[in-house]
Amino acid sequence: MKTVLPFMFISIVLLQFSCNKENDELKSLNGVWVHTDTKTDTIDFNTKMFTSKRTFELKRGKEIRDDHELPKMGSGFYLYEIKGDSIYLRDIISSYGGALSYYFKMDPDRRSFEIASFAPFTGGLMVNEFKRIDKTSR
């Protein structure tokens, strides 16, 4: 019993620190971010789907396909998890059940981030930069 109590205490402390880091990460992403090159593609981290805190909506505008006005390819809701310099994304409506890994780096000032192309962004860049446009959600 004496050896279990210190282990439980250390576990609780570590859990507290990991939860605080996760909350800081989620809080720093809150808001709407615009693609710095296209100025039209946006990522909205304020969107919460299925009560998950780790969702965002990629908004890419509309296009005409087969005589119908539809969202551009890649638009939609994504589940995400950030680990180190990677973001793991899962398109919510995709039939693929796994998450794919992409490069992700938050700028130290938390006003922009870089993310590898996970959607067919205009310009065909390998890494895309998004800048915060919604300052009220910090």
Topology:
Layout: H1 4-29, E1 32-35, E2 42-44, E3 55-59, E4 62-65, E5 68-71, E6 76-83, E7 86-91, E8 100-106, E9 112-116, E10 127-132
Antiparallel strand pairs: 1-2, 1-10, 2-3, 3-6, 4-5, 6-7, 7-8, 8-9, 9-10
Number of helices: 1
Content-based structural category: alpha+beta
**Overall morphology:** globular
Number of strands: 10
How far the N terminus sits from the C terminus, by CA atoms, comes to: 45 Å
With strands numbered from the N-terminus, the spatial order across the biggest sheet is 1-2-3-6-7-8-9-10
What kind of assembly state do the chains in view correspond to? Answer: single chain
- Summarize the main sheet: 8 strands, antiparallel, barrel
How large a portion of the residues is in β-strands, by DSSP E? 35-45%
What is the gyration radius calculated from CA atoms? 18 Å
Description:
- It is a single chain.
- The protein is an alpha+beta fold.
- The chain is 19% helix and 38% strand.
- The protein is built from one helix and ten strands; from the N terminus they run αββββββββββ.
- The protein has one helix at residues 4-29; strands at residues 32-35, 42-44, 55-59, 62-65, 68-71, 76-83, 86-91, 100-106, 112-116, 127-132.
- The strands form two sheets. An eight-stranded antiparallel beta barrel has the order 1-2-3-6-7-8-9-10. The protein has a two-stranded antiparallel sheet with strand order 4-5.
- A hairpin with a 5-residue loop joins strand 8 and strand 9 (112-116).
- The longest helix has 26 residues, at 4-29.
- The radius of gyration is 18 Å and the shape is globular.
- It starts with a helix and ends in a 6-residue tail after the last strand.
- Residues 4-22 have low confidence and may be disordered.
